[in-house]
Each structure stands twice: as C-alpha cells, then as structure tokens.
Amino acid sequence: MHVRIRCRAGTKHTCPKCGTSCPGYDSLERSWRHLDTCQFQTILVADVPRVKCPEHGVHQIHMPWSAPGSRFTALMEALVIDWLKEASISAGARMLHLSWDEVDGRLLSVGCAIEARSGQSASVSTRPRFRSATNT
Ligand SMILES: [Zn+2]
Question: Which residues are within 5 Å of ligand 1 (an ion), measured at CB?
C-alpha cells in the first residue's frame, strides 16, 4: 500500500540549518516504510521540498514523520527497536519483513543519533543490549 502525501499549495518552508523562512527551490520524491495497515506493507511517498537559503544554499526540508536520511518513519523505527529489545536481529527482521541489513543499519543509525544527543559511544550505549544474531 502506498500513501501519497502532498504539501498544501502556498505552504511556507524553512531552512533546516537556520530556521529562516526560504523560497522553495524544487522537490524530490522520497519514500519511507511505515507501520503496516491492515497487514499490508505501507509505504509513505512524498515530494519533499527543497529550499534555497541565502546563507546555506539548497537543502531538503525535514519531514516531521522521519529522521533526516532515514528510510523509515519514526513509528516504524520505534517498532523495530521494540522488536529488538525482545528478539534477535534475524527474528525482528523476519517478523517485520525487513532484511537483516535494514534492521542492522537502522540500529546503527539510531545508535549514532543517541550518540550525538548524549555524547556516548553508540557501540557502548546500544549494541550490548541486543542479543547476538547471525546474518541469515
Ligand atoms: Zn539557512
């Protein structure tokens, strides 16, 4: 299931670097894996605007449902993390219909975000909490 998201015409956007209101530049289509809907895999699709900041140049704005650069919505990331608190990477990937690399990559990304916020090492703050797994 694909869910198309569109900005309302005339929506004002801001530079993700400085928060200044900026004119639109263009948009790029992106997609994010979201929580399943009635057991159907759900993908959010949007044309993400880019703005042209006089100080920082052209940047894609941040979407409120996802971390910058993530291929998952925040809700899907939370579900992945919840699964990994209870099961191995392989089991979580199998139950969520994701590849081992997608789950492991998501973990590393979240670990890096935690590291950036707390100043702790991702390998120390997140990795040891999860069970070891094999790449199957
Ligand atoms: Zn700026």
Answer: 15, 17-18, 53, 55-56
